Amino acid sequence: MAKPAKKKKSAASSQEHAQEYAQERAQKEAAQALAAAAKKLFSFSFSSPLVLRSAKPEFGDLSSAAAFEIAKNAKTAKKNPVDIAKKLAAETAQVLPPLFSSVAALGPYVNFVYSNEFYAALLYEVSVAGEAYGSSESGAKRRVVIDYSSPNIGKPMHVGHIRSTILGDSICRLLRFTGCSVVGSNYLCEAGTQTAKLMLALHELEKRKLNDEKDLLDYYVKIHKRIEENPELLEKARVIVEDMEKGEVKLKKELAEVRRISVDAFDRNYALLGVSFEESIFDSDMVPLAKRMALELLDKKIAFRDKDGEIVGDLEKFALPNLIVLRSNGTTLYSTRDLALAETRFERHAFTECVYVTGSEQKNHFNQVFKILDLLGKPYAAGLKHVSFGLISLPSGKMSTRAGNVVLLEDILNAVIAEAQKEILKRRGADYSESEIGAISKQIGVGSTRFAFLRVSPEKNIVFNPAAAVVFEGDTGAYVQYALVRCRSILAKAEEAGVKADAYAKTTKSDFGREEKALLALAAEFPLAVESAARAMQPHQVCDFLLKFCAAFNAFYAACPVLNAENDEDKVRRLRIVEASLRVIENGLGLLGISAPEKM
Q: How far apart are CA 287 and CA 330, in angstroms?
């Protein structure tokens, strides 16, 4: 398999970050000021710390609904929230925290406006934090195993596998960025009926040398047609399942060759996508423990043996369908091996959470498996989670491995890279060498593919169009990459011109312009966006943030000349803003597993 990713310290611990981020401090200072005003004016104390929300730009930067809570109190019940807000704002203005330039009431809300000191502090901390900006140690006590990708041995990776692979990889990155200890785990399925049918194909069909995963797919499709014509072959497949679980020597040798071909193909795809794992587990290795656990279920009366001799998890009393955990011939199923997999992972990693990133069609299956483990009294059962996602299709329609009408993952990535190359040639082909065009196209193609899948919330279905993914305008990864390249270009030109910003200045007397403030206010929200995305395990929140941020950066770029600014003060300040923007975009893309070329 792909080489395991080296375990690294979290970005937050690799940099000195002694202070809270600017918006965290501003939130705290505003909340404290409001709490003091409420105490003084109304003898009122809030039951929990106030949380201020981001306001609409035309109304301010942070907004509080504290007046509503005060109005609910018995002592102040007759007071109008609008009047309360006015008094709170007036009192707070007398002792306004330095990170704000003003505070005012708008209806029942109290709105705060950031000061120049806030923006200066933000620029300072972004430059100091660097690659760690937006990170935290909020997940420091969590040890999380993420189960993702999980292709089947003997079958090629097709476009249907891409969502689990990309989504799982990004969730790993998000959790690590917030301090979690993360194990990326690839569970490779080779036991069971489907692989047995492939073994049957090797015995029944014309012998030929197996060169790659496409040969395996050809065998797989042909044996299914043969079985349809000769149903009695299913009995041979059942016997092969039994022999595989017994470790029959000839089958073991054949399976090893199929595994080698499959894994080589998987590794090519993972390398292209920039994905790696801390561990790879083969489900055939779970069989002995799986059988013991099935018998344990029977012994503890969590399962029963039905009239056909199968061991069945008794789940109907818990409003779940019963689950077969062992066939009458003593062979295992996915369900049995998933029980053993959870047990094995906990023994290895003592995880606090184990997250399975798979299609929504498996939701019921995992509910059944998790419930059985809970009934067994497993200490880790409460930490098992399922992040599900919708279906993937292409404009041409649905796919079926059995029928052979699949689009290989490698082919789809190559198609997107080709589309990116067309776009580059159309725009600036004459400016680059052939090797540069190839490298740039690969970064744009793969990055745009990742972004296209990640920007859709997991529960929604996706129709993936390779040509649409690499468009430089609109809600695409290429659009975000282009904003990053623009930042780099401005900074490179500044360096050539000998213009250098004092990136570590803690304060500034400069007045920040409207577009500058709008962009930096968003930069201040980046840590909150990361925290929210990590907590929910939903990378699309980072995509949404980046699209919004890049739109603000482009508005800044259009309205605020940097190297051609009217004076040196504006030039230096705007260069620092570009540096901060680069850091936000680069860190955000990093959480999505996306890099950007130096030029586009």
A: 11
